Write the structure tokens for this entry.
Amino acid sequence: MKVFKELTIVTPNKPGKLAQALRTLANAGVNLIAIDSSSGYDLNMVRIVTSDSATARKALEKIGYNVAESTVLGLTVSDKPGQLARIASLFSKAQVNIEYMYASAVAYDQPALVVVHAGDAAAAEKVLRAAKFV
């Protein structure tokens, strides 16, 4: 488990806007670790976890984006049935709310990185450490 700073921007839902933001990060030497991009009609909410959140934030602000920052947990999860259910159950028992999550895997049957945004990140981290989910 690793604690990350997640950056969120809202882009117009038009061709080239996401590419512009991602190209800006690449040009700044920032590597993407995880991304979630969700459309809501005219707008696109883009959540990113990067190798360097401070540099990413500056680069995105330089091209005019308002950047929100939050704390998320990155979990390496094996590709087995019930892994996400286990995480959700641990949080449920501790009354920690999962506000959202997204995942990325290298390939089918390989471990995945699951990014979890909990209502109380410190409590979520404590629950996972107590369950030896690290």
In short: Strands lie at 2-12, 32-40, 43-50, 68-77, 98-105, 112-118.
